[in-house]
Specification:
Distance between the termini: 16 Å
Structural class: mainly beta
Strand content: 35-45%
Oligomer: single chain
Largest sheet: 11 strands, antiparallel
Number of domains: 3
Number of helices: 4
Protein backbone atom coordinates (compact mmCIF):
# COMPACT_ATOMS: atom_id res chain seq x y z
CA UNK A 1 0.00 0.00 0.00
CA UNK A 2 1.40 3.41 -0.92
CA UNK A 3 2.51 5.69 1.88
CA UNK A 4 1.84 9.08 0.33
CA UNK A 5 -0.66 10.50 2.80
CA UNK A 6 0.31 13.98 3.91
CA UNK A 7 0.02 15.56 7.31
CA UNK A 8 -3.24 17.46 7.40
CA UNK A 9 -4.19 20.72 9.11
CA UNK A 10 -4.87 20.18 12.79
CA UNK A 11 -7.76 22.59 13.27
CA UNK A 12 -8.19 25.58 15.56
CA UNK A 13 -5.29 27.05 17.51
CA UNK A 14 -5.66 28.22 21.12
CA UNK A 15 -6.47 31.85 20.25
CA UNK A 16 -9.14 30.69 17.83
CA UNK A 17 -10.52 28.36 20.50
CA UNK A 18 -10.71 31.22 23.00
CA UNK A 19 -12.59 33.31 20.46
CA UNK A 20 -14.87 30.38 19.78
CA UNK A 21 -15.68 30.03 23.49
CA UNK A 22 -16.69 33.71 23.61
CA UNK A 23 -18.83 33.25 20.50
CA UNK A 24 -20.50 30.18 21.97
CA UNK A 25 -21.29 32.09 25.16
CA UNK A 26 -22.94 34.87 23.14
CA UNK A 27 -24.95 32.37 21.10
CA UNK A 28 -26.15 30.64 24.25
CA UNK A 29 -27.35 33.94 25.66
CA UNK A 30 -29.18 34.77 22.42
CA UNK A 31 -30.74 31.32 22.28
CA UNK A 32 -31.98 31.66 25.85
CA UNK A 33 -33.49 35.05 25.06
CA UNK A 34 -35.57 33.68 22.17
CA UNK A 35 -36.49 30.46 23.95
CA UNK A 36 -34.35 28.02 21.94
CA UNK A 37 -33.31 24.87 23.82
CA UNK A 38 -29.63 23.97 23.59
CA UNK A 39 -30.66 20.32 23.89
CA UNK A 40 -32.14 20.53 20.40
CA UNK A 41 -28.78 21.34 18.84
CA UNK A 42 -27.49 18.87 16.28
CA UNK A 43 -24.73 16.49 17.34
CA UNK A 44 -22.95 17.05 14.06
CA UNK A 45 -19.14 17.25 14.20
CA UNK A 46 -17.80 20.53 15.50
CA UNK A 47 -15.62 22.13 18.18
CA UNK A 48 -16.41 20.87 21.69
CA UNK A 49 -17.37 23.95 23.77
CA UNK A 50 -16.63 22.27 27.12
CA UNK A 51 -13.12 21.15 26.23
CA UNK A 52 -11.49 23.52 28.76
CA UNK A 53 -14.32 24.68 31.00
CA UNK A 54 -18.08 24.29 31.27
CA UNK A 55 -19.44 26.82 28.77
CA UNK A 56 -22.75 25.01 28.30
CA UNK A 57 -24.55 22.57 30.57
CA UNK A 58 -22.42 19.41 30.59
CA UNK A 59 -23.81 16.41 28.74
CA UNK A 60 -24.14 13.56 31.26
CA UNK A 61 -22.29 10.27 30.80
CA UNK A 62 -25.53 8.37 30.31
CA UNK A 63 -26.95 5.53 28.25
CA UNK A 64 -27.90 7.46 25.11
CA UNK A 65 -28.63 4.76 22.53
CA UNK A 66 -31.12 1.94 22.05
CA UNK A 67 -28.45 -0.73 21.93
CA UNK A 68 -29.03 -3.50 24.52
CA UNK A 69 -25.36 -4.48 24.42
CA UNK A 70 -24.29 -0.96 25.37
CA UNK A 71 -26.94 -0.93 28.09
CA UNK A 72 -25.50 -4.12 29.56
CA UNK A 73 -22.28 -2.37 30.58
CA UNK A 74 -24.10 0.42 32.43
CA UNK A 75 -26.33 -2.11 34.18
CA UNK A 76 -23.48 -4.47 35.09
CA UNK A 77 -21.57 -1.61 36.72
CA UNK A 78 -24.54 -0.89 38.98
CA UNK A 79 -25.70 2.47 37.61
CA UNK A 80 -29.34 3.34 38.14
CA UNK A 81 -31.81 3.12 35.25
CA UNK A 82 -33.52 4.14 33.12
CA UNK A 83 -30.85 6.67 32.08
CA UNK A 84 -27.91 4.89 33.74
CA UNK A 85 -25.93 8.07 34.38
CA UNK A 86 -22.30 7.23 35.17
CA UNK A 87 -20.68 9.31 37.92
CA UNK A 88 -23.60 11.79 38.12
CA UNK A 89 -22.53 15.36 38.73
CA UNK A 90 -18.89 14.59 37.94
CA UNK A 91 -18.64 12.98 34.49
CA UNK A 92 -19.42 14.75 31.23
CA UNK A 93 -19.54 13.39 27.71
CA UNK A 94 -17.46 15.42 25.26
CA UNK A 95 -17.57 15.00 21.49
CA UNK A 96 -14.37 15.74 19.60
CA UNK A 97 -13.97 15.66 15.83
CA UNK A 98 -11.03 15.63 13.46
CA UNK A 99 -11.69 17.03 10.02
CA UNK A 100 -13.05 17.78 7.61
CA UNK A 101 -11.13 15.04 5.83
CA UNK A 102 -11.37 15.39 2.06
CA UNK A 103 -11.79 11.82 0.85
CA UNK A 104 -10.76 11.34 -2.76
CA UNK A 105 -12.39 8.78 -5.08
CA UNK A 106 -11.08 5.33 -4.24
CA UNK A 107 -8.91 6.69 -1.41
CA UNK A 108 -7.06 4.16 0.72
CA UNK A 109 -4.23 6.30 2.05
CA UNK A 110 -2.20 5.42 5.11
CA UNK A 111 -1.36 8.46 7.23
CA UNK A 112 2.34 8.05 7.91
CA UNK A 113 2.71 10.97 10.34
CA UNK A 114 0.24 11.47 13.19
CA UNK A 115 -1.87 14.62 13.28
CA UNK A 116 -2.47 16.56 16.47
CA UNK A 117 -6.08 16.37 17.64
CA UNK A 118 -8.28 17.91 20.33
CA UNK A 119 -8.68 16.52 23.85
CA UNK A 120 -10.00 17.63 27.24
CA UNK A 121 -7.87 20.66 28.12
CA UNK A 122 -7.64 20.02 31.85
CA UNK A 123 -6.41 17.37 34.25
CA UNK A 124 -8.74 14.46 34.86
CA UNK A 125 -9.71 10.91 33.95
CA UNK A 126 -11.06 9.27 30.79
CA UNK A 127 -13.70 6.65 31.66
CA UNK A 128 -15.13 5.80 28.22
CA UNK A 129 -14.12 6.23 24.57
CA UNK A 130 -16.45 5.78 21.56
CA UNK A 131 -15.26 6.33 17.94
CA UNK A 132 -17.22 6.99 14.75
CA UNK A 133 -17.01 8.39 11.22
CA UNK A 134 -19.55 11.07 10.26
CA UNK A 135 -20.59 13.34 7.43
CA UNK A 136 -20.69 17.11 8.09
CA UNK A 137 -24.43 16.87 8.85
CA UNK A 138 -23.85 14.31 11.62
CA UNK A 139 -25.10 11.26 9.73
CA UNK A 140 -23.02 8.10 9.44
CA UNK A 141 -22.19 6.98 5.87
CA UNK A 142 -22.74 3.36 4.78
CA UNK A 143 -19.65 1.23 5.29
CA UNK A 144 -19.64 0.06 1.66
CA UNK A 145 -19.20 3.69 0.54
CA UNK A 146 -16.64 4.99 3.02
CA UNK A 147 -15.41 3.87 6.43
CA UNK A 148 -12.68 4.22 9.01
CA UNK A 149 -10.57 1.17 8.22
CA UNK A 150 -8.46 1.84 11.27
CA UNK A 151 -7.66 4.70 13.58
CA UNK A 152 -5.01 4.85 16.29
CA UNK A 153 -5.02 7.39 19.12
CA UNK A 154 -1.65 8.24 20.72
CA UNK A 155 -0.49 10.56 23.49
CA UNK A 156 2.66 12.56 24.10
CA UNK A 157 3.96 11.65 26.59
CA UNK A 158 2.76 8.06 26.39
CA UNK A 159 0.31 7.00 29.10
CA UNK A 160 1.37 3.36 28.95
CA UNK A 161 3.04 1.29 26.24
CA UNK A 162 2.25 2.82 22.86
CA UNK A 163 -1.15 4.11 21.67
CA UNK A 164 -4.07 4.21 24.09
CA UNK A 165 -6.95 3.34 21.74
CA UNK A 166 -7.64 1.87 18.31
CA UNK A 167 -10.71 1.19 16.19
CA UNK A 168 -11.76 0.13 12.71
CA UNK A 169 -14.93 -0.88 10.89
CA UNK A 170 -16.14 -2.58 14.07
CA UNK A 171 -16.04 0.69 16.10
CA UNK A 172 -15.41 -0.99 19.44
CA UNK A 173 -16.36 1.11 22.47
CA UNK A 174 -13.96 1.27 25.43
CA UNK A 175 -15.90 1.49 28.71
CA UNK A 176 -13.53 1.58 31.68
CA UNK A 177 -14.73 -0.55 34.62
CA UNK A 178 -16.48 1.38 37.36
CA UNK A 179 -14.05 3.17 39.66
CA UNK A 180 -11.19 3.36 37.14
CA UNK A 181 -10.05 5.88 34.56
CA UNK A 182 -7.06 6.81 32.42
CA UNK A 183 -5.34 9.88 33.94
CA UNK A 184 -4.65 12.72 31.52
CA UNK A 185 -3.08 16.15 31.98
CA UNK A 186 -3.80 19.54 30.48
CA UNK A 187 -0.31 19.66 28.95
CA UNK A 188 -0.63 16.28 27.19
CA UNK A 189 -0.87 16.17 23.41
CA UNK A 190 -3.11 13.69 21.57
CA UNK A 191 -2.30 12.46 18.09
CA UNK A 192 -4.14 10.39 15.50
CA UNK A 193 -3.08 7.97 12.77
CA UNK A 194 -5.86 6.83 10.45
CA UNK A 195 -6.79 5.13 7.21
CA UNK A 196 -10.11 6.02 5.58
CA UNK A 197 -11.35 3.76 2.78
CA UNK A 198 -13.51 5.08 -0.07
CA UNK A 199 -15.21 2.75 -2.55
CA UNK A 200 -17.08 5.35 -4.61
CA UNK A 201 -16.05 7.55 -7.58
CA UNK A 202 -16.98 10.88 -5.99
CA UNK A 203 -15.20 13.16 -3.52
CA UNK A 204 -16.68 13.61 -0.05
CA UNK A 205 -15.98 15.15 3.32
CA UNK A 206 -16.03 13.21 6.59
CA UNK A 207 -15.02 13.65 10.22
CA UNK A 208 -13.49 11.15 12.62
CA UNK A 209 -15.37 11.65 15.88
CA UNK A 210 -14.62 10.36 19.35
CA UNK A 211 -16.98 10.72 22.30
CA UNK A 212 -15.00 10.91 25.54
CA UNK A 213 -16.41 10.47 29.04
CA UNK A 214 -14.31 12.77 31.21
CA UNK A 215 -14.14 13.44 34.96
CA UNK A 216 -12.18 16.55 36.00
CA UNK A 217 -9.50 15.82 38.56
CA UNK A 218 -11.15 17.92 41.26
CA UNK A 219 -14.32 15.79 41.04
CA UNK A 220 -12.66 12.38 40.67
CA UNK A 221 -11.73 12.09 44.35
CA UNK A 222 -15.39 12.03 45.37
CA UNK A 223 -15.81 8.86 43.29
CA UNK A 224 -12.50 7.32 44.40
CA UNK A 225 -11.31 6.96 40.79
CA UNK A 226 -8.17 4.85 40.52
CA UNK A 227 -5.71 5.06 37.61
CA UNK A 228 -5.54 2.48 34.83
CA UNK A 229 -3.05 2.68 31.96
CA UNK A 230 -3.17 1.27 28.41
CA UNK A 231 -0.87 -1.55 27.32
CA UNK A 232 -0.67 -1.91 23.52
CA UNK A 233 -0.37 -5.47 22.16
CA UNK A 234 0.35 -5.98 18.47
CA UNK A 235 1.17 -9.13 16.53
CA UNK A 236 3.52 -7.13 14.29
CA UNK A 237 4.83 -4.07 16.15
CA UNK A 238 5.87 -1.63 13.42
CA UNK A 239 4.83 1.57 11.68
CA UNK A 240 2.33 -0.33 9.53
CA UNK A 241 1.62 -3.59 11.41
CA UNK A 242 -0.02 -5.81 8.79
CA UNK A 243 0.18 -9.37 7.46
CA UNK A 244 -1.55 -11.54 4.85
CA UNK A 245 -3.80 -14.57 5.25
CA UNK A 246 -4.46 -16.81 2.26
CA UNK A 247 -6.70 -19.79 1.73
CA UNK A 248 -5.33 -23.33 2.18
CA UNK A 249 -2.99 -22.17 4.95
CA UNK A 250 -3.39 -23.00 8.62
CA UNK A 251 -5.50 -25.83 9.99
CA UNK A 252 -9.20 -26.70 9.73
CA UNK A 253 -10.25 -23.47 8.05
CA UNK A 254 -8.34 -20.98 10.20
CA UNK A 255 -4.80 -19.68 10.47
CA UNK A 256 -3.16 -18.10 13.52
CA UNK A 257 -0.39 -15.57 12.89
CA UNK A 258 2.53 -15.33 13.66
CA UNK A 259 2.39 -18.75 15.29
CA UNK A 260 1.57 -20.39 11.93
CA UNK A 261 2.47 -19.74 8.31
CA UNK A 262 -0.59 -17.99 6.87
CA UNK A 263 0.49 -16.75 3.41
CA UNK A 264 3.09 -17.09 0.67
CA UNK A 265 4.33 -13.50 1.09
CA UNK A 266 3.80 -10.43 3.26
CA UNK A 267 2.03 -7.20 2.16
CA UNK A 268 5.25 -5.94 0.55
CA UNK A 269 5.81 -9.13 -1.42
CA UNK A 270 8.61 -10.28 0.88
CA UNK A 271 9.10 -13.45 2.86
CA UNK A 272 8.81 -13.06 6.61
CA UNK A 273 7.90 -15.13 9.66
CA UNK A 274 4.62 -16.85 8.83
CA UNK A 275 4.61 -15.09 5.43
CA UNK A 276 6.37 -17.42 3.02
CA UNK A 277 8.34 -18.80 5.95
CA UNK A 278 7.25 -21.06 8.83
CA UNK A 279 5.49 -19.41 11.74
CA UNK A 280 7.41 -18.93 14.97
CA UNK A 281 5.27 -21.45 16.87
CA UNK A 282 4.53 -19.02 19.68
CA UNK A 283 3.41 -15.45 18.98
CA UNK A 284 4.56 -11.88 19.61
CA UNK A 285 5.52 -11.00 23.19
CA UNK A 286 5.38 -7.74 25.10
CA UNK A 287 7.30 -7.95 28.35
CA UNK A 288 6.10 -5.99 31.37
CA UNK A 289 8.76 -4.01 33.27
CA UNK A 290 11.01 -5.51 35.89
CA UNK A 291 10.28 -4.61 39.51
CA UNK A 292 11.04 -0.93 40.06
CA UNK A 293 11.11 0.01 36.36
CA UNK A 294 8.68 2.30 34.54
CA UNK A 295 5.96 1.80 31.93
CA UNK A 296 4.73 5.12 30.56
CA UNK A 297 3.22 7.02 33.47
CA UNK A 298 3.59 4.00 35.76
CA UNK A 299 6.65 4.53 37.93
CA UNK A 300 8.22 1.92 40.20
CA UNK A 301 6.20 -0.98 38.77
CA UNK A 302 5.49 -3.68 41.37
CA UNK A 303 2.87 -5.68 39.53
CA UNK A 304 -0.78 -5.01 38.91
CA UNK A 305 -4.15 -6.15 37.61
CA UNK A 306 -5.39 -6.22 34.04
CA UNK A 307 -8.92 -4.82 34.50
CA UNK A 308 -10.07 -4.78 30.86
CA UNK A 309 -9.05 -5.85 27.36
CA UNK A 310 -10.39 -5.50 23.82
CA UNK A 311 -9.13 -6.36 20.35
CA UNK A 312 -9.14 -5.32 16.70
CA UNK A 313 -9.15 -7.50 13.58
CA UNK A 314 -10.17 -6.89 9.98
CA UNK A 315 -13.08 -8.60 8.20
CA UNK A 316 -12.15 -12.27 8.04
CA UNK A 317 -10.73 -12.14 11.56
CA UNK A 318 -11.94 -14.78 14.01
CA UNK A 319 -10.32 -13.61 17.24
CA UNK A 320 -7.38 -12.07 19.09
CA UNK A 321 -5.52 -14.68 21.16
CA UNK A 322 -3.74 -13.31 24.25
CA UNK A 323 -1.71 -15.53 26.59
CA UNK A 324 0.16 -14.68 29.76
CA UNK A 325 3.68 -16.12 29.82
CA UNK A 326 5.59 -16.26 33.11
CA UNK A 327 9.33 -16.87 32.52
CA UNK A 328 9.85 -18.77 35.79
CA UNK A 329 6.49 -20.49 35.59
CA UNK A 330 4.02 -21.43 38.31
CA UNK A 331 3.45 -24.75 40.03
CA UNK A 332 -0.13 -25.71 39.24
CA UNK A 333 -1.93 -28.63 40.86
CA UNK A 334 -4.79 -30.30 39.01
CA UNK A 335 -6.91 -33.31 39.80
CA UNK A 336 -6.97 -36.23 37.38
CA UNK A 337 -9.36 -38.91 38.48
CA UNK A 338 -8.41 -40.03 41.98
CA UNK A 339 -5.01 -38.39 42.01
CA UNK A 340 -3.55 -34.91 41.90
CA UNK A 341 -0.82 -33.82 39.52
CA UNK A 342 1.51 -30.88 40.10
CA UNK A 343 3.22 -29.38 37.07
CA UNK A 344 5.10 -26.18 36.33
CA UNK A 345 3.16 -24.12 33.77
CA UNK A 346 4.69 -21.26 31.83
CA UNK A 347 1.82 -20.11 29.62
CA UNK A 348 -1.93 -19.71 30.04
CA UNK A 349 -4.70 -18.17 27.91
CA UNK A 350 -6.27 -15.04 29.38
CA UNK A 351 -8.34 -13.59 26.49
CA UNK A 352 -10.19 -14.85 23.44
CA UNK A 353 -11.19 -11.65 21.64
CA UNK A 354 -13.93 -13.12 19.47
CA UNK A 355 -15.30 -11.23 16.45
CA UNK A 356 -19.10 -11.55 16.35
CA UNK A 357 -20.46 -11.37 12.80
CA UNK A 358 -24.12 -10.36 12.74
CA UNK A 359 -26.55 -12.51 10.80
CA UNK A 360 -27.93 -11.14 7.55
CA UNK A 361 -31.44 -12.50 8.18
CA UNK A 362 -31.54 -11.36 11.83
CA UNK A 363 -28.90 -8.74 12.71
CA UNK A 364 -29.82 -8.90 16.39
CA UNK A 365 -28.02 -12.26 16.54
CA UNK A 366 -24.50 -13.27 15.59
CA UNK A 367 -23.59 -16.14 13.32
CA UNK A 368 -23.06 -14.28 10.04
CA UNK A 369 -20.31 -15.07 7.52
CA UNK A 370 -16.77 -14.26 8.72
CA UNK A 371 -15.96 -12.07 5.71
CA UNK A 372 -18.58 -9.41 6.45
CA UNK A 373 -18.14 -5.76 7.41
CA UNK A 374 -21.01 -6.25 9.86
CA UNK A 375 -19.33 -7.37 13.07
CA UNK A 376 -18.52 -6.36 16.64
CA UNK A 377 -15.54 -7.24 18.81
CA UNK A 378 -15.99 -8.79 22.24
CA UNK A 379 -14.14 -7.60 25.34
CA UNK A 380 -13.41 -8.61 28.92
CA UNK A 381 -13.16 -6.60 32.13
CA UNK A 382 -14.20 -6.12 35.72
CA UNK A 383 -16.38 -7.23 37.42
CA UNK A 384 -16.32 -10.37 35.23
CA UNK A 385 -12.60 -10.60 34.57
CA UNK A 386 -9.43 -9.40 36.27
CA UNK A 387 -5.95 -10.90 35.78
CA UNK A 388 -3.04 -10.43 38.18
CA UNK A 389 0.34 -9.82 36.56
CA UNK A 390 3.87 -9.75 37.96
CA UNK A 391 6.99 -7.80 36.97
CA UNK A 392 8.65 -9.49 33.99
CA UNK A 393 5.50 -11.27 32.79
CA UNK A 394 4.97 -11.43 29.04
CA UNK A 395 1.72 -10.82 27.19
CA UNK A 396 1.73 -12.95 24.04
CA UNK A 397 -0.38 -12.01 21.00
CA UNK A 398 -1.68 -13.96 18.03
CA UNK A 399 -4.49 -13.26 15.57
CA UNK A 400 -6.67 -15.99 14.07
CA UNK A 401 -8.30 -15.49 10.64
CA UNK A 402 -10.71 -17.50 8.51
CA UNK A 403 -9.25 -19.28 5.47
CA UNK A 404 -12.37 -20.98 4.11
CA UNK A 405 -14.08 -18.06 2.35
CA UNK A 406 -11.43 -15.62 1.19
CA UNK A 407 -7.82 -14.55 1.13
CA UNK A 408 -7.44 -11.36 3.17
CA UNK A 409 -4.52 -8.99 2.81
CA UNK A 410 -2.99 -6.35 5.08
CA UNK A 411 -4.70 -7.80 8.14
CA UNK A 412 -4.17 -6.66 11.71
CA UNK A 413 -4.22 -8.22 15.16
CA UNK A 414 -4.17 -5.59 17.90
CA UNK A 415 -5.37 -5.62 21.50
CA UNK A 416 -5.32 -2.96 24.20
CA UNK A 417 -5.47 -3.96 27.85
CA UNK A 418 -5.91 -1.69 30.87
CA UNK A 419 -3.40 -2.11 33.69
CA UNK A 420 -4.17 -0.94 37.22
CA UNK A 421 -0.74 -0.90 38.91
CA UNK A 422 -0.24 -2.07 42.47
CA UNK A 423 0.61 0.39 45.21
CA UNK A 424 4.33 0.84 46.07
CA UNK A 425 3.90 -1.57 49.00
CA UNK A 426 2.57 -4.24 46.62
CA UNK A 427 -1.07 -3.93 47.67
CA UNK A 428 -3.40 -4.37 44.66
CA UNK A 429 -5.49 -1.43 43.46
CA UNK A 430 -7.95 -3.75 41.72
CA UNK A 431 -9.39 -7.22 42.31
CA UNK A 432 -7.90 -9.97 40.18
CA UNK A 433 -6.89 -13.62 40.10
CA UNK A 434 -3.74 -15.57 39.33
CA UNK A 435 -4.59 -16.87 35.83
CA UNK A 436 -2.52 -20.02 36.32
CA UNK A 437 -4.64 -21.19 39.25
CA UNK A 438 -7.97 -19.45 38.78
CA UNK A 439 -11.10 -21.40 37.95
CA UNK A 440 -12.48 -20.62 34.49
CA UNK A 441 -16.14 -20.08 33.66
CA UNK A 442 -17.02 -20.19 29.96
CA UNK A 443 -20.76 -19.73 30.51
CA UNK A 444 -22.67 -16.85 28.91
CA UNK A 445 -24.26 -16.29 32.33
CA UNK A 446 -20.98 -15.65 34.15
CA UNK A 447 -21.26 -12.14 35.60
CA UNK A 448 -19.12 -11.89 38.76
CA UNK A 449 -15.61 -13.20 38.22
CA UNK A 450 -12.81 -12.35 40.69
CA UNK A 451 -15.33 -11.65 43.47
CA UNK A 452 -16.30 -15.33 43.34
CA UNK A 453 -12.86 -16.69 42.62
CA UNK A 454 -13.23 -17.28 38.89
CA UNK A 455 -12.42 -15.74 35.53
CA UNK A 456 -15.34 -15.23 33.16
CA UNK A 457 -13.84 -16.35 29.84
CA UNK A 458 -16.85 -15.68 27.62
CA UNK A 459 -16.26 -12.14 26.25
CA UNK A 460 -19.12 -9.77 25.46
CA UNK A 461 -19.56 -7.28 22.62
CA UNK A 462 -19.62 -3.55 23.34
CA UNK A 463 -22.39 -2.86 20.83
CA UNK A 464 -24.78 -4.63 18.48
CA UNK A 465 -25.38 -4.36 14.75
CA UNK A 466 -24.92 -0.88 13.30
CA UNK A 467 -27.34 0.25 10.54
CA UNK A 468 -24.49 1.61 8.40
CA UNK A 469 -23.18 -1.96 8.10
CA UNK A 470 -26.51 -3.37 6.94
CA UNK A 471 -25.99 -3.43 3.16
CA UNK A 472 -24.52 -6.89 2.71
CA UNK A 473 -24.83 -6.91 -1.12
CA UNK A 474 -24.95 -10.27 -2.87
CA UNK A 475 -27.12 -11.65 -5.68
CA UNK A 476 -30.59 -10.29 -6.27
CA UNK A 477 -33.15 -10.72 -9.02
CA UNK A 478 -32.56 -12.54 -12.30
CA UNK A 479 -29.14 -12.67 -13.93
CA UNK A 480 -29.20 -11.95 -17.65
CA UNK A 481 -26.38 -11.99 -20.13
CA UNK A 482 -24.67 -14.19 -22.67
CA UNK A 483 -21.26 -15.80 -22.48
CA UNK A 484 -18.45 -13.52 -23.62
CA UNK A 485 -14.89 -14.10 -24.76
CA UNK A 486 -12.43 -15.94 -22.49
CA UNK A 487 -9.97 -13.77 -20.58
CA UNK A 488 -7.20 -13.92 -18.03
CA UNK A 489 -6.83 -10.18 -17.50
CA UNK A 490 -9.03 -7.29 -16.32
CA UNK A 491 -8.12 -3.61 -16.63
CA UNK A 492 -9.56 -0.98 -14.28
CA UNK A 493 -10.05 2.61 -15.46
CA UNK A 494 -12.60 5.30 -14.64
CA UNK A 495 -14.12 2.93 -12.04
CA UNK A 496 -14.98 0.43 -14.77
CA UNK A 497 -13.70 -3.13 -15.20
CA UNK A 498 -12.80 -4.25 -18.74
CA UNK A 499 -13.84 -6.87 -19.52
CA UNK A 500 -16.47 -7.75 -16.94
CA UNK A 501 -18.07 -4.47 -15.89
CA UNK A 502 -21.71 -4.95 -14.96
CA UNK A 503 -22.70 -2.11 -17.28
CA UNK A 504 -21.12 -3.89 -20.28
CA UNK A 505 -22.53 -7.38 -19.93
CA UNK A 506 -25.35 -6.81 -22.44
CA UNK A 507 -22.85 -5.58 -25.07
CA UNK A 508 -19.83 -7.82 -24.57
CA UNK A 509 -21.35 -10.67 -22.61
CA UNK A 510 -20.01 -12.23 -19.46
CA UNK A 511 -16.26 -12.94 -19.79
CA UNK A 512 -15.16 -16.48 -19.05
CA UNK A 513 -12.15 -17.57 -16.99
CA UNK A 514 -10.88 -21.11 -17.38
CA UNK A 515 -11.04 -23.01 -14.08
CA UNK A 516 -7.62 -23.32 -12.45
CA UNK A 517 -6.00 -20.43 -14.34
CA UNK A 518 -4.85 -17.05 -13.02
CA UNK A 519 -6.89 -13.87 -13.37
CA UNK A 520 -4.81 -10.68 -13.26
CA UNK A 521 -6.05 -7.14 -12.56
CA UNK A 522 -4.29 -3.96 -13.69
CA UNK A 523 -5.18 -0.63 -12.10
CA UNK A 524 -4.79 2.00 -14.82
CA UNK A 525 -6.23 4.72 -12.54
CA UNK A 526 -2.82 5.28 -10.97
CA UNK A 527 -1.55 4.75 -7.45
CA UNK A 528 -3.87 7.34 -5.85
CA UNK A 529 -7.04 5.29 -6.45
CA UNK A 530 -7.37 1.80 -5.02
CA UNK A 531 -9.73 -0.98 -6.05
CA UNK A 532 -10.61 -4.08 -4.07
CA UNK A 533 -10.65 -7.23 -6.16
CA UNK A 534 -10.41 -9.88 -3.44
CA UNK A 535 -13.50 -9.16 -1.33
Amino acid sequence: MADRARRRATGLDRRARAGLLLLVSILIAVAAAVGVSSASASRAPGPEPNFATDVVSPRPCAYDSHDPYEKHFYHAEGWRGPNYVRYPGACQRLRFAYGPILVKPGQNDVLVTPVTIDKPDRDGYITRFKPNLMRPDGTVPPVEQVHLHHGTWLSEPSYGSGPFFAAGEEKTIAPFPRGYGMPIKKADQWQLLYMVHSAVPNTMQVYITYDVDFIPKEKAANWHIKPAYPVWLDVRPSGYPVFNVQRKFGHKGTCTWPSQECASFDPWGNKFIGQGKPGNGSGTDLQLPKAGDSLGDIKNFRGGTLIGIGGHVHPGGIQNDIDLVRPKGELVTTRRGHRTVTKREYRTRIYNGIARYWRYDNPSKWGGPPDSWDFSMSVEGLPRWGVRVKPGDRLRSNATYDTTRLASYEDMGISVTLLAPDQPNGKPNAPGLDPFRAKRNYSTRCSTGPARGRLCMYPIVTHGHYPENGNHSGPGGKWTGTAGAPTGHVSIADFQYTPGDLGQRSTFGIPRVRLGTDLSFTNIEGNAIYHTVTA
